[in-house]
Amino acid sequence: MQPSYEEKTEKFSMIRKKPHHVPPHLHNAIELVYVTKGELELGVGYELYHMEKGDFAVVFPDLIHHYQVFSKESNEVYQIYASLELSGPFMALLQKKCPENPVIKKENLPYEIKNSLECLISGEKVNEIVGQAYLQIILYQCNNMLQFIEKDRVGSNDLIYSVMTYLLSHFQEELTLGSVAEALGINKFALSKVFSGIFHTNFNQYLNEIRLNYASSLLENTDRRITDIYLEAGFESQRTFNRAFQQKYGRTPSEYRKTWWGK
């Protein structure tokens, strides 16, 4: 499942993936993003940033962010997650501030950051000590290059946390914009503005993203029947589920499962 809030437990980890639409979420780790093929959109708070091959971004802990992919070309990105405790002298900065613009374009990327990233993704297993060393090199360069603002200026407030937490807990139920607004004690038009202004989508699209990420995780990691999966994910019918799934992933749920397990 792709939760709205992720508690990262490993101190240093890295994944290579083909990026796709990921709904707004947040976690307690530093996230480094390095695009090695294609392009994507990184959303942080109210802003959306375009990234292409060779571009780099740093997402500070506890900031709402999401990914969108519009290109039909092949895409590849490395995402590196590091615990705040590995940041050393930069911990206070990471806790209180965030970059005004988290993206450094390829042509402006310092050699020290590019070299550190290339070493990290070279294929060799990186232990925590080595990861910490490269992380602090990267953060040092970011500290010199980027402009920083207070975190509360990027839209990470209590209302947004409440919305995300509620949807994470109740997405398997029948939900409407009105019912969620009533449960949270706010006006539904104000709630609608949260989705358009912060999440860059509408209520139904965001809810579907959470449900589809949950369903795709079950397809990847279990052999449960698709009829059980779509119901558990909160979809009313298999037809609705199949249509939404194919629109997001470009294949049916059965085809998607086969790409993972050949089942």
Automatic annotation (TrEMBL):
UniProt keyword Iron-sulfur, yes or no: no
Coiled-coil stretches noted in the UniProt entry, renumbered to this chain: none
Record domain HTH araC/xylS-type: where: 161-259
Pfam families attached to this UniProt entry: AraC_binding, HTH_18
InterPro entries: AraC-bd, Homeodomain-like_sf, HTH-like, HTH_AraC, RmlC-like_jellyroll, Tscrpt_reg_AraC-type_HTH
An MF annotation (GO) of this entry: sequence-specific DNA binding
PROSITE patterns cross-referenced by the UniProt entry: HTH_ARAC_FAMILY_2
Domain of life: Bacteria
Alphabetical keyword list: DNA-binding, Transcription, Transcription regulation
Xref: PANTHER family: ARAC-FAMILY TRANSCRIPTIONAL REGULATOR, HTH-TYPE TRANSCRIPTIONAL REGULATOR EXSA
Protein name, as recorded: AraC family transcriptional regulator
Organismal lineage: Bacteria, Bacillati, Bacillota, Clostridia, Lachnospirales
